[in-house]
Design goal:
- The complex is a heterodimer.
- Chain A is built from no helices and 11 strands.
- In chain A, strands 2, 4, 5, 6, 9, 10 and 11 form a 7-stranded mixed sheet that branches. In chain A, strands 1-3-8-7 form a 4-stranded antiparallel sheet, with no helix packed on it.
- Chain A starts with a strand and ends with a strand.
- By secondary structure, chain A is mainly β.
- By secondary structure, chain B is mostly beta strands.
- Chain B is built from no helices and 9 strands.
- In chain B, the strands form 2 sheets. In chain B, strands 1-9-8-3-4 form a 5-stranded mixed sheet, with no helix packed on it.
- The chains are: A mainly beta, B mainly beta.
- At the A-B interface, strand 5, strand 9 and strand 10 of A face strand 4 of B.
């Protein structure tokens, strides 16, 4: 079965602790993304990566870090510098076809992070 | 900035056709328009994508006027299971314009 997996589904952490959210895909997609969603809000882009060992900040990257050492994996670390980390985090992937691309994103099930 | 604007919410009775319009006045020449559906506590799911005129698939149609400053998602004969949030998305993050999902349109289908 091809798809995107995120783990864990629910995560609880104490304030001041760093936490890493996992995202794995076996779709052989080049591009991967991390979004944050707050209650009643849309999705906001945190980071994205078009290719292995390269990633770019999105609209709300402060307090977050990522790595892309493998094509299949794009973990997100929520650091203690993130002022309000409690949210629903979504990972996605897509085929990067370059200019004039039809970028259709496939989303994982999400991780709900609660910082106590 | 390719920011999108949609109605916050809509209600419809079962069996009716629903049209949701998205405004994207600053759409770039290269940008495609993509619509996603999201159920509570799940990741969004792709519905349909287009560049201009009309696109139809097994679940929806997408109408895009010649100036491409707006698009309309059309859901034929909605059922209760179509109750969800629908997002319009324009462009890609590396295209130079702001990549923005927006708050989406919450559709409630009434029996």
């Amino acid at each position: 079965d091809g798809g995107i997996t995120q783990s864990p589904k629910y995560l609880f952490r104490k304030e001041g602790q760093n936490v890493t959210l996992s995202c794995e895909q076996n779709l052989n997609h080049d591009a991967m993304y991390w979004y944050r969603q707050d209650p009643g809000q849309g999705l906001r882009l945190i980071y994205y990566s078009q290719i292995v060992n390269d990633f770019q900040k999105g609209d709300i990257a402060e307090g977050y870090s990522v790595s892309r050492e493998k094509k299949e994996s794009f973990p997100l670390t929520v650091t203690s510098a993130q002022k309000n980390p409690t949210a629903f985090y979504l990972c996605a992937s897509s085929i990067d076809l370059g200019e004039f691309s039809r970028d259709t994103q496939y989303f994982g099930p999400g991780t709900r992070l609660t910082v106590l | 900035l390719a920011k999108t604007t949609q109605p916050i919410s809509m209600d419809s009775y079962e069996g009716q056709e629903v049209n949701i319009t998205c405004s994207h006045n600053n759409i770039a020449t290269n940008d495609y328009i993509t619509w996603y559906q999201q159920f509570p506590s799940q990741g969004p799911r792709f519905i349909i994508q287009g560049y201009k005129t009309k696109v139809t698939n097994e679940v929806a149609s997408l109408f895009i006027p010649a100036d491409r400053k707006s698009s309309t998602l059309s859901l034929p004969r909605v059922s209760l299971s179509d109750t969800a949030v629908y997002y319009c998305l324009v462009g890609e993050p590396w295209a130079g314009n702001q990549f923005y999902f927006g708050t989406g349109t919450s559709l409630t289908v009434i029996p």
